[in-house]
């Protein structure tokens, strides 16, 4: 295994560790809803971006998936949805400016990691893509996912009452 695959395995391990340490069992249903909804957003968006040739993921953890689906399965279906779960479950009760800062910090950190990986590894390659597109799409994805979560939570409270 090359360095890039070890990075993917390490990130998956850290993500699994985050699942067990940061997601309370009593909120597992909410976590599943967040995970599935974000995958509905990221799969078509990621597929579109890759098929347009704007971004490429040359190194995949599973080689066979690369011929059928050239998006990053690790990112689109696992890492980013788990980050979005943690984002929404721990969303602070703040006013508008605080929420904007929270969004920008999460998306900014995620964007910095992707840019670092793009510059130092072959895990991701930008063609007609730039860091600010990543920042914008991550913010939009987190926003849509969190709004859906708030709607779901409101409906869940009504059902329990």
UniProtKB/TrEMBL annotation:
Keyword Transcription: no
Residues that span the membrane, as ranges: 6-24, 31-55, 75-92, 99-117, 129-150
Keyword Transmembrane attributed: yes
Assigned keywords, A-Z: Membrane, Transmembrane, Transmembrane helix
Domain of life: Bacteria
UniProt protein name: CBO0543 family protein
Species whose genome carries this gene: Robertmurraya mangrovi
């Amino acid at each position: 295994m090359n360095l890039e695959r070890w990075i993917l395995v390490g990130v998956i391990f850290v993500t699994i560790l985050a699942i067990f340490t940061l997601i309370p069992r009593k909120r597992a249903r909410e976590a599943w809803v967040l995970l599935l909804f974000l995958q509905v957003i990221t799969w078509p968006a990621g597929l579109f971006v890759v098929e347009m040739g704007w971004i490429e993921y040359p190194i995949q953890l599973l080689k066979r998936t690369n011929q059928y689906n050239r998006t990053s399965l690790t990112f689109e279906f696992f890492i980013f949805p788990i980050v979005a779960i943690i984002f929404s479950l721990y969303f602070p009760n703040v006013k508008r400016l605080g929420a904007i800062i929270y969004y920008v910090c999460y998306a900014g950190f995620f964007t910095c990691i992707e840019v670092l990986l793009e510059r130092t590894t072959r895990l991701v390659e930008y063609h007609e893509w730039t860091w600010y597109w990543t920042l914008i799409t991550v913010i939009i994805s987190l926003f849509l996912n969190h709004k859906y979560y708030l709607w779901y939570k409101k409906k869940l409270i009504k059902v329990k009452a």
